[in-house]
Amino acid sequence: MKNTRRETLTAIGTASLWTTLGSGVVLGSTTGFTGTGSPIQKAIYDVTQSREGPYLVAANGDVLARRAATAADDTDYEQVLDAGLRAGDKTFYGTDSTDDGRNVWLAGESGRVGYYDAVDEQFTDYSNPNGLSPTWRDVAVAGVAGRDKVYLFGDGGEVLVGERDGPGMEWESAAVFNGGNTIYGGSLVDETTGYCCDSTGTVYETVDGGSTWTNIGIRRTNKPMYDIDAVATDTVTAVGGGGRIFEYDGTEWSKYKPGSSDVRGVDRTTDDQVAVGVGGRLYTRSSDGWSVTNFDSSKTLRGVALDTTGSYPDAVGGNGGQIFERGTYTAYPDDLRLESADKPSIGYEFDVSGPTTGTDRNELDDDVTQTTTGYTVEGSVGDGDRVDRYRYGGDVSGFSVTSGPASKLTTVRSGTEVSVERLTDRTWTEVATPVDVTLYEIVETTGAFYAAGESGRIIKTDSNGDWVVVTKTGVKGGGNTLYGAGVTDDRAAVWVAGGSGVIGRIDPSTDEITDYSDTETYTTTWTDVATAGTTESETVYLVNGSGEVVTGDYDGTTLTLGDAVKPGNGSSIRGVTCIDADLAYVCDDNSTVYETRDGGATWTDIGISWAGVTLYDVAAVGRDDITVVGGSGRLFRYNGAVWTLTKLGGNSRIGVDRSADRGVAVGGSAEVFEREIEGWTETYEDASDVTLNSGIVVRDDSTASKYAVGGNGVALRQTIDDPL
């Protein structure tokens, strides 16, 4: 691991990179580490500091993040990844973060490498760079998020250097310069200067961004070096076998041997050093040299990360999931700004799950009160008090406007403007429908929701929000099941498609259904339909179980269908979505997603070769933001360069919808997972065996946030607690 990022924070002040308050640890102290709760019992291999405090990586791909504590917490650490990237249970051995602390990089077995965005709370997977699959023993990072410079160190002596290139990474050729010996540790001073140490006890230095590496010692060690950390070219520490610790001043190495057990990890700042190792030993540096302290544990400690902001604890991790800390978490990594430029005073109230404080932008009557589960904030803004600002750690919920015009209030969360509704509480409720058959798709028009399903049933919501029947017999009166539904861009027309090649168009102004089936040409079952364009200038994408895509154009009178095109090998295509008439995506049973940019004439395979599950649905915000769901709780996100897996439970995810930074994914056991601003969280589950087949993010209904439909005519509606 490296130390440059933490030294940078100390030098320039933490406020310019992330917000912190309070006093922290006394750097250089040789005591003060105490055990803290851990959500895992697996070996922790490395630790780094981020803009939100310590992150730890562990066996089987587990990743832990330090969170602001509340009285309700059993542990201060949250498990943000279980079973690793691609759910392969591959162990992470190294971690490091960008200079601004936003991107936490991790690397390990089978070529696994990626980063966790501590702000967006999502992973991005760059595993097997250049097709390589060694065990990466460490990772070192320089630069800020978006301009990440990444060094990977492998068990075959590989060093691979890469730089962020938009959504992707530009990797150089791997270098092997030490005879293929395992490189256990790496550290960077800056983007071009770095160090690594290997199993022979040798340390190498680069000053040209990894193009060349020079052997700078250590002579006659005869022991492996397991970790290295560098603050500057004359401030380097390496640790290794037999209790050896070495310090480098840019010219010579000084040897220390405070014990006889292997030392496995080290971290240093300009005025403090801590190392850890076998037997639960902690090594600290003073002006008199190194001394050793034995923890109560007999298990190996493997990683350590020191804080220099004064707002986060130093952290040590080791075997059995053990975590030790020195210092306290006094930071407020996020902020909420409330603004009103008009004179009317606006009263507000909200809850925060973690530590919260006001700032000098607040008035005396703005109040922050600690509760048993967090903090409650009450205040007012406007009428001369134009801005209130709060710093906090945790989650904001239950936002309400207690007085004044809510329309005049602007809320900005950590630099991103969000609506008041996004900060209030939301509730899922099952609503009655007039059918008991399976509903396969739901769409939103201007003023109503439509759902289509088994036996050709189509239902809609009326002006009161109640569900009513549009048809019991389907498009042609034959009761063909409808598996797909799509809505035009202006939400003024609905297309449905399903069994025996039926295709229909619904005019929501009259609920008239027009049959556009071409049963002479297409009689196979349509599995989904997507629509682009506005009324009477509509493009329709249809997909089927034979792996075919058919594109049609509607001019207000006639639907003209083109020839069927097979993007792949004929595997059943389950889902389709389109961004416009030319740009569309489909997903199939063969774990493959295809893209067209020419209206369906040609298709390109854009992944996912390693998915290993049936893909059921696809949603696209843009070419660099595509989400696909599939079997075994898999959700895959594409950023325009790579696919990243997120596990959402164990049941299949059947339907997905996205809108900017919002999302909903549904599937078995009536489970609902949501994305609101950051991360995916389960927000609803029913013990019944009902499967939810389709969910949507509501665009136009101010009283609802999301909708989902599924088996037995089930419909779930998420309402927003009125903030007024």
Characterize the structure shown:
Residues 346-365 are annotated as: Disordered. This protein is an all-beta fold. It folds into three domains: 4-326, YVTN repeat-like/Quinoprotein amine dehydrogenase (Methylamine Dehydrogenase, Chain H, 7 Propeller); 334-424, no CATH class; 427-720, YVTN repeat-like/Quinoprotein amine dehydrogenase (Methylamine Dehydrogenase, Chain H, 7 Propeller), CATH 2.130.10. The chain is built from two helices and 66 strands. Strands 10, 11, 12, 13 and 14 form a five-stranded antiparallel β-sheet that branches. It starts with a helix and ends with a strand. 55% of the residues are buried. Residues 1-30 have low confidence and may be disordered.
Topology:
Layout lengths: L3 H9 L21 E3 L7 E7 L2 E6 L4 E4 L10 E5 L10 E6 L5 E6 L4 E5 L4 E4 L10 E7 L6 E6 L3 E8 L2 E4 L3 E2 L6 E6 L5 E5 L4 E4 L7 E2 L9 E8 L2 E6 L4 E4 L4 E4 L6 E6 L4 E5 L3 E6 L2 E6 L6 E5 L8 E5 L4 E4 L7 E6 L6 E7 L3 E3 L8 E4 L4 E7 L5 E6 L3 E8 L6 E4 L2 E3 L1 H4 L2 E6 L7 E7 L2 E6 L4 E4 L5 E5 L10 E6 L6 E5 L4 E5 L4 E4 L10 E9 L2 E8 L4 E6 L4 E3 L11 E6 L5 E5 L4 E4 L7 E2 L9 E8 L2 E6 L3 E5 L4 E5 L5 E7 L2 E6 L4 E5 L1 E7 L7 E6 L6 E7 L4 E6 L4
Antiparallel strand pairs: 1-29, 2-3, 3-4, 4-5, 6-7, 7-8, 8-9, 10-11, 11-12, 12-13, 12-14, 15-16, 16-17, 17-18, 19-20, 20-21, 21-22, 23-24, 24-25, 25-26, 27-28, 28-29, 30-35, 30-37, 31-34, 31-36, 32-35, 33-34, 37-38, 39-66, 40-41, 41-42, 42-43, 44-45, 45-46, 46-47, 48-49, 49-50, 50-51, 52-53, ...
